[in-house]
Amino acid sequence: MRTLLFICCFLLYMNNFSQGNLQLNQVLNLSFTSNGNNFSVPAGKVWKIEGVGLSSYSSFFSVSVAGQQVFLKNTHTSYGPVFDSFPYWLNGGQNVFFSGLTSGVASVLEFNIIP
């Protein structure tokens, strides 16, 4: 009986430390220009950038979050090796800036955070 009581108490205790679940809300195709575009991740949601399509093979894609620029894709051979850093996650409530050497489209999955 004590063992059962201990297991029940332990499970209730551990439930308080759960992180919540993610529920797919929608798929977004966010277009950006070579000058860049601002987007906002809604509060209570997270974005997962799955990939980016660029209008030129010799281009790059970057995301700026809170003024910090992160290069996620670079195919411009004179800048160094080709790299991809997908998926890339963005927190809710953040303003982000998508930019590149050329225009393109970012494929984003938007999730609801379910407590």
Summarize the SSE layout with pairings.
Blueprint: H1 2-15, E1 21-32, E2 37-40, E3 45-54, E4 60-65, E5 68-74, E6 83-84, E7 88-90, E8 95-100, E9 104-114
Antiparallel strand pairs: 1-9, 2-8, 3-7, 3-9, 4-5, 4-8, 5-6
Can you put this structure into words, describing what you see?
With 115 residues, the chain is mainly β. 12% of the residues lie in helices and 53% in strands. It is built from one helix and nine strands; from the N terminus they run αβββββββββ. The strands form two sheets. The protein has a five-stranded antiparallel beta sheet, with no helix packed on it. It has a four-stranded antiparallel beta sheet with strand order 1-9-3-7, with no helix packed on it.
Question: Key features?
Answer:
115 residues, mainly beta, Jelly Rolls, 4-stranded antiparallel sheet, 1 helix, 9 strands
Q: Structural class, please?
A: mainly beta
Share of helical residues = 10-25%
The second-level CATH architecture is: Sandwich
Q: Identify the strand order in the major beta sheet.
A: 2-8-4-5-6
User: What is the C-level CATH assignment?
Assistant: Mainly Beta
Order of helices and strands: HEEEEEEEEE
How confident is the prediction overall: mean pLDDT? Answer: 81
Corresponding CATH superfamily: Jelly Rolls
CATH topology: Jelly Rolls
Q: Strand count, sense and closure of the main sheet?
A: 5 strands, antiparallel
Number of strands: 9
